[in-house]
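Issue 218. Parser rejects a valid record. Input:
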Amino acid sequence: MLQSEILQSDWLRVNEAAKYAKCSRALIYELISAQTIKSFLRKSHPANKSGTRLVSRASIDAWMNAQAEAAV
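Output the parser choked on:
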């Protein structure tokens, strides 16, 4: 996905979310695990156990805004 497409998309893959937030993929997974940011697993087929984890761009924005406010 192109950088301009990332900025317009409501849902990002984990690696795109990390680039968008300028942090590591590990931190994105930590935030997902702590339910600090919203995500869901999009399966290619209902019988599959794996799929693509998508992260809400709006929840990343909210987390980054909270971090910025806490730093002031």
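Fixed in the parser; the record now loads. The chain has four helices and three strands.
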